Amino acid sequence: MNIKEYMTSLGQQAKTAGREVSRAESGQKNAALLAIAEQLKNNTALLAEENAKDLQAGKEKGLDAALLDRLELTPARIQAMIDGLNEVAALPDPVGAMTDLKYRPSGIQVGQMRVPLGVIGIIYESRPNVTVDAAALCLKSGNACILRGGSESIHSNKAIAQCVAQGLEQAGLPVTAVQVVETTDRAAVGELISMNDYVDVIVPRGGKSLIERISKEATIAVIKHLDGICHVYIDGAADIEKAVNIAVNAKTHRYGVCNAMETLLVAESVATQVLPKLAVLYKKSGVELRGCLKTCSIIPGCVRATEEDWATEYLAPVLSIKVVTDIDEAMAHINQFSSGHTESIVTENYTLARRFLREVDSSSVMINASTRFADGFEYGLGAEIGISTDKLHARGPVGLEGLTSLKYVVLGDGHIRQ
Question: What's the CA gap between 67 and 51, in Å, rounded?
């Protein structure tokens, strides 16, 4: 296979399909989403069978537990994909929506209209459910997409792509509106991120090395985040029961995800109350604890944390803990070590909570909630294309609006400039 010719062909087809999808009515796009959901439901056995091939190959290659977890399509995850498609179909269509129409002194009306970005290239590792999330969001927002999953999930992605194509065809939309790259050759990635004539935006989803490479080498705009170094701060005015539940969930609900807590900060005034309780629960879950000197004096057997620990995204059952004087020291630590993904404060002090919201500069900031909620589905976006820690265009979980842009529209009636 000539990779350059193959990728150029995908790009050309996506550009043509994108124009058709961009003008499709909401009803037709929703019909396609519901048809894809039905295809997934009817082909659960096939999906499980193809996913089993990927899991077996992954085990033989020695993939770690976190990657295998991301790769697995459990019945619950297949149902979540179906639910996501149904939810995206039920969301308002952002395309064509006009806002802020105002009359100018000249008599013209000026406003803005939401329009698709065009063709979106998505490069991701492990998680085959991304194939469905990406297809759903790109389709509903009037975009075509080229999806390049990891070689470890090639069988799963092809099976999902087959369901997507059948759903598109059933709804009368071009099957080339969603294309999965069928080669595992890494040269395909290099081609995709430099196809300026056909691709408008690149979205990388995966490990730090992948995203760093894409960010450096892409000649196309990139929506991305590098790390998920998320923090929970338990304030001196926290409800201890809430604090324990949130801190346990944020770390142990799932380890290999970007919104899992990696560092726990605890106010000195409540450290002796909350840390022993947490230590027992973390031990039951097999979580290794690495703490500052004060933490180690409270939790027997806690490993002394290094400076490197504060800047590490473990994606594993490992947690860094630091006892801080107050909210100011907590926010100073967060601003130094956070990756800008998600931070949460546990407190009953409304004034401090408002300070935390205002002064912590991350894409999601929470009060009395687990960082695990930093997710497009949980935010009501239906699904997410990824999470952006950039500050331009889109920030946080990227849903339908994040896959559109704004253009100015002017309404006149024969007006000429004087």
Answer: 13
Nearby residues of 61 by Cβ (< 8 Å), 6 or more positions away: 152
How high is the pLDDT of residue 313?
94
Burial status of residue 354 (CB atoms within 10 A of its CB: 0-12, 13-18, 19 or more): exposed
Edge-to-edge, what's the strand order for the sheet holding 178-180?
Answer: 178-180, 144-148, 119-124, 201-205, 221-222
| pLDDT (0 to 100) of residue 205 | 84
| pLDDT tens for each residue of 291-337 | 999 999 999 999 999 999 999 999 999 999 999 999 999 999 999 99
Which regions of the chain are under pLDDT 70?
none
Q: Distance between CA atoms of 120 and 204, rounded to whole angstroms?
A: 11
CA distances from 151 to 58, 126, 181, 191, 208 (A): 10, 8, 10, 16, 17
pLDDT at residue number 210: 87
User: Rounded to whole angstroms, how far apart are CA atoms 39 and 51?
Assistant: 16
Cα 205 to its chain centre, rounded Å, is: 7
The helix/strand/coil state of 94 is: coil
Please give the Cα distance from 26 to 98 (Å, whole number): 15
